[in-house]
Amino acid sequence: MTTATTDVVDGLVGVRRDDVLDELRRRRPVTRDQLQASYDALFAPVDDRTFAVADRVLVAAFATRSTADDETARHYADAARDADSERAALVLAEASFAATAGPFGAYREEGLRGESSEGRRYEPSPDTRDVLGERLAAALAHTHLLTFRPREADAADHARLLEAGWTPDGIVTLSQLVSFLAFQQRVAAGLRAIAATQEVSA
To answer: Is residue 34 within 8 Å of residue 26, measured between CB atoms?
Structure first.
């Protein structure tokens, strides 16, 4: 992927110059600019040796599709197909299988254990690992963990990524990517909801 020439969130939502959503977004120019800058840094990095851009796009397709079937998910699905059509097909199938709602998981703290809850967990099958490779398969499992069970993430999960071939810098970027995607998808969904309200009111 290359640096976007237009604001990606605007594209996902269909924001038009000087419309209600554009006016709303212009009230927070720093947030708007930082969100786009984060996108550019993650998907058009100066150096992607620790986490290839093609793999970032595949992780993005998995994270967003397992969360919702929306414009954000479709954006990354298309990008994944462009980057690696064969692996994208499997990643998207895995995302549909792993789709769930969260967050959920087990609290370790004594006073919070009663609030623990369960949901769909995801672990790539041996066949999936064979096709995607241990490194990407481990990234998908970790992405699902951070997206839906963040309260359970611990040093053992970090160690599993290292064993799969990830470097510490790569793991940091993976975590940043998952966090960014969750925020971007929520922002886009919120703006679409506002747009729908405006259409009903019109």
So the answer is: no
Nearest 5°: the CA angle 124, 127, 131 is 95
Q: How far apart are CA 71 and CA 10, in angstroms?
A: 11
DSSP 18: T
For every residue of 119-184, DSSP letters joined together read -------HHHHHHH-HHHHHHHHHHHHHHH-GGG--HHHHHHHHHTT--HHHHHHHHHHHHHHHHH
Q: What percent of the chain has pLDDT over 90?
A: 68
Residue (of 167, 107, 100) closest to 139 by Cα position: 167
Q: Rounded distance, CA 84 to CA 88, Å?
A: 6
Cα of 31 vs its chain's centroid, Å: 18
29, two tokens:
């120019």
Q: Would you place residue 200 in the very low, low, confident or very high pLDDT band (cuts 50, 70, 90)?
A: very low
DSSP string, 25-94: HHTSHHHHHHHHHHHHHHHS-S--TTS-HHHHHHHHHHHHHHH-SSHHHHHHHHHHHHH-HHHHHHHHHH
Q: How many Cβ atoms from other residues are within 10 Å of residue 104's Cβ?
A: 17
Q: What residues contact residue 3 under an 8 Å CB cut-off, 6+ apart?
A: 40, 44
